[in-house]
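Translate sequence into structure tokens.
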Amino acid sequence: MKPLLTAALVVLSLTGSYAQSDLLVLKQKNRTIQTWVPGSLISFQFSSKQWLQGIIKTIRNDSITMEQIDIRTVPNAFGFPTIDTAKLGIMKLHVNEVYGMPKRVYGSGIFTNGVLLQLGSGAFMFLNIANSLIRNEQVFSPLNLGRLGVAGSVFVVGSLLRAGHKTYIVLGKKYRLETIHVGADNRQAP
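Result follows.
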């Protein structure tokens, strides 16, 4: 009974090791941020700055084969939004052709990206000008000009913060994409 059990365990372990595949790993310096395996959905910015999305078919050495897809929200027959997926074909690329990846965690983006400053100062300027016109006051009086100047300065600061805030990470010095070989080597050398 023991030899039969041992043979079964050996066969199962060999089958399991051949079933494993390579991993695609996004790293920040030496820390792993995200991993993908065949069958995973991936979204990235290609070297031509075009955003692509697809399902990973294979990961071999430093290349990825994926089925490119396009996921869109379209109205159905009753006018309600539904999700539609279009398959665009197989694409093979090298990991160095990936330019950027979307950020997974945005954190408190509205407080750090300048949008809140732009909205607040824009609303203040609109109300200030509207109230001045309603009350038949001068819009550019010395008292009102200082208030509009401060609001305009806050808007410019918000615009500068928004220009420097990106929703994606660029691969390079800090971030890198690499493949990791997992399991037994079932490929033949060239």
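Note: Strands lie at 23-28, 31-36, 41-46, 51-60, 63-75, 81-94, 98-102, 168-170, 175-180.
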